[in-house]
From TrEMBL:
Name by which UniProt lists this protein: Adenine deaminase
EC number: 3.5.4.2
Binding-site positions, substrate: D289
Residues annotated as catalytic: E210 (proton donor)
One GO cellular component, as annotated: nucleus
Reaction(s) catalysed (UniProt annotation): adenine + H2O + H(+) = hypoxanthine + NH4(+)
Site feature (Important for catalytic activity) residues: H231
Physiological role: Catalyzes the hydrolytic deamination of adenine to hypoxanthine. Plays an important role in the purine salvage pathway and in nitrogen catabolism.
Encoding gene, per UniProt annotation: AAH1
Length: 337
């Protein structure tokens, strides 16, 4: 019953978007040539034979870890402050075309410092592109630094200290946690989140309950003290966790196309959106890594509507919860709702 125009016109907020996940195969090849970076040879991985071959490989991920190999490798082509600016600005252009009014954008720091890129170039480059996008399109934004679970806790702690001046200056707004989930219980990273509180960082989130069990969502809430859960679709496996989410009014940042691409769920219809709505768990819809998962935010909305046929009142709830759960000033929320 709803046209794409109806979905485009909704005041959409995106809360779960990895800027590195907006690096398309076409941009990857362009930046590799520009920065004289050698992509893996045929002998290592035939997927890098051409843009088309890589696009095809991205349509056949078998798991989160299978995706993460490509995602982490692709970052090798991001070298200069201008590369990060271009990446961020390209996302803002796409966000504008999709009708996004507010974007909370994650970045990985550890991946980039490992190649010798400075935190200055990463954070200032991203802020350059995002500020330009705000000026040109009127989209507000927040930057979230995600620590990486596949690396030792000591690496995350070290990078928190490295990033502290940027948090203090308001150039980084929130802290998140991503990367591989199986066998990486949230409690392991408690020192990082304790340090965040010590630093006065008031906006905390973590990926949990994507491939990992519902208990990881509980741990993130109770032991890390996060205010939001990224993904969280496995929360429904434990009533106690659902109750906790409802009572705390925690927002889940659900990523429908991502869940299907990474085989977290077999089909879009299996992403438990209707059950979350019925049980009163707040969620927003997000693209996660749009260059890898077959669509930016509006495409997620369109495919969700095709699969679920939500009523206008359901869309009003989803969009209002997204605004309410955003890390934006109250005055801005009041104007949007
Ligand atoms: N899960 C975990 N780590 C990630 C993701 C994700 O969906 N996207 C980028 N890093
Ligand atoms: Zn994610």
């Amino acid at each position: 019953p709803h046209s794409v125009d109806f979905l485009r016109a909704l005041p959409k907020c995106e809360h779960h978007l990895h800027i590195e996940g907006s690096l398309s195969p076409a941009l990857l090849f362009r930046l590799a040539a520009h920065n004289a970076i050698t992509l893996p040879s045929h002998a290592v991985d035939v997927a890098y034979a051409s843009i088309e071959a890589l696009e095809a490989r991205y349509r056949s991920f078998t798991s989160l870890d299978d995706f993460l190999d490509y995602y982490n490798r692709a970052s090798a082509v991001l070298i200069t402050r201008a590369d990060f600016e271009a990446l961020a600005y390209e996302y803002m252009k796409k966000a504008h075309a999709d009708g996004i009014v507010h974007a909370e954008i994650s970045f990985d720091l550890q991946t980039h410092t490992a190649r010798g890129v400075s935190i200055d170039d990463v954070v200032h480059g991203l802020n350059d592109g995002l500020n330009k996008g705000r000026t040109d399109f009127g989209i507000s934004f927040r930057l979230i630094m995600c620590i990486l679970r596949h690396l030792p806790v000591s690496s995350s702690v070290g990078h928190m200290h490295l990033a502290k001046p940027f948090f203090d200056a308001g150039l980084i707004f929130g802290l998140g946690m991503c990367s591989t989930e199986k066998s990486q219980p949230p409690t392991k990273f408690r020192p990082v989140f304790d340090l965040a509180r010590e630093f006065g960082i008031g906006h905390l989130t973590a990926h949990a309950g994507e491939e990992g069990p519902a208990d990881y969502v509980r741990q993130a809430l109770e032991e890390l003290g996060v205010h939001r859960i990224d993904h969280g679709v496995r929360s429904l496996e434990e009533d106690e966790v659902v109750d906790m989410l409802v009572k705390r009014e925690t927002l889940l940042t659900v990523c429908p196309l991502s869940n299907v691409c990474l085989q977290v769920k077999p089909r879009l219809e299996d992403v438990p959106l209707r059950e979350l709505l019925e049980r009163g768990v707040r969620f927003s819809l997000n693209s996660d890594d749009p260059a890898y998962f077959g669509g930016y935010l509006l495409e997620n909305y369109v495919q969700v509507q095709r699969a679920f046929d939500f009523a206008p009142s359901d869309w009003r709830t989803i969009v209002a919860n997204g605004i309410e759960g955003s890390w934006m000033p109250d005055e801005q929320k009041e104007k949007l709702i």
